[in-house]
Target: MFS transporter
Amino acid sequence: MTDTHQSSKKSGMAARDGALRLIHAVLSDKYLLDDAYRHEITEGQLRRLNGNDRAFAKRIAITVLQHLGEIDIVLSRFMDRGMPNKSGPLRNILRIGVAELLYLDNPAHAVVDCAVTHYRKWRKYAGFKGLTNAILRRVSKDGAKELASIDPAKANLPDWLYQSWTKTYGLAATNAMMEQFLKPLIPLDLTLKNGDDSAHWAEKLEAEIMPTGNLRMATHDRVDRLAGFDEGAWWVQDAAATLPVKLLGDVTGQDVLDLCAAPGGKTMQLAAKGANVTALDLSTKRLERVQENLDRVGLTATLVTGDVLTHETGKKWPFILLDAPCSATGTIRRHPELIHQRAAQDITHFASLQAKMLNRIANQVAPGGLIVFCTCSLQSEEGPDLISDFLMHNPDFGIEPIEPDEIAGIAPFIQNDGTMRTRPDQWGEKGGMDGFFAMRLRKCE
Ligand SMILES: C[S@@+](CC[C@H](N)C(=O)[O-])C[C@H]1O[C@@H](n2cnc3c(N)ncnc32)[C@H](O)[C@@H]1O
Model:
């Protein structure tokens, strides 16, 4: 064997080892994948690897998380006696093997070889080498046939989520959303600080100008290496996430209270429109991110650490934006781990918190003022289901319906009740978008 071959085998193994650690951190320790990855490249195994090998490790982890339900069904079909008890890393080693064989098309000999090599580190479980080898060889031979008989949406979603979405959006939309969740590449959306510059930056970044005015890059280099990053010409923000701020209308020179503001995407949008923004968040640490983001793009806002449920601002506001904490099921396309970390009870918890927040801020709005409420959730409990209760408790408010021609690109997302709903399968051929709910509530004069 040549030196190059040896070192590429070594780095391939280190990448797979990194993937194993990422998957464990997400599935067992409930870390977000991005946080686990950041930890791995600063302090963990991936620190010593080059960019390509790190990317390979992350790709394996993402593929396992996206296809976990399908992978586990395939494995169950080749493991007549099920997963052995007390088998340590076996399950995740096999999951990585199946992901590589069935979705990443990596050569079977390398996949099986690396899978059994894991046990050099996990000596206690070395007895599972033979089983690992046998199962993966069978998957490499017949796995694709098994996979063809599996319904991706049903397999990859927990039953409560599958039932919830098929009931709310129907079977076709649920399947179409899953199709987006399984895409290997997610486009990068950028919001320009100065919207008039879109043609210039679109050309420079080889990006597309979307109907909502933001830029979309189908593929991209590291974000901090892209043109315009250092000069603060734009920030990363999903196209759907840009719409709620626009619902406030013209806020130039107006006082806007931006609640639950970190990491600050919407704060930057408001400040760029010339509003006097007060941005409040529970987390001081997350507000530091808001400040860093504002500094980079050369914008300002007043930052306040506080709890929406108790904080007194001491004045009535003409404009309030509440981007409430939520289950974030609308962002699964970018965070596949959420499928495995969320439970039905979380929805009840977030919906009740959102209702409390909405009721609490109602008396902080000036007569004739506006609240825009939004969540990046696909669950109706965290969106339209909140309306009737709020209006019953706050009869001085009404929904101000969104009009199709008031904001570029918003027409397809307007619902019959005048609220906004985006879904991950919309703009599907261009890479989809986050699922967002937003509504505009006007207080009587
Ligand atoms: C969906 S994120 C907000 C995203 C942000 N608006 C943006 O556009 O970048 C939700 C935020 O709510 C904050 N949060 C959660 N509970 C809160 C509370 N009780 N009071 C204030 N902020 C809260 C979290 O710290 C988190 O930063």
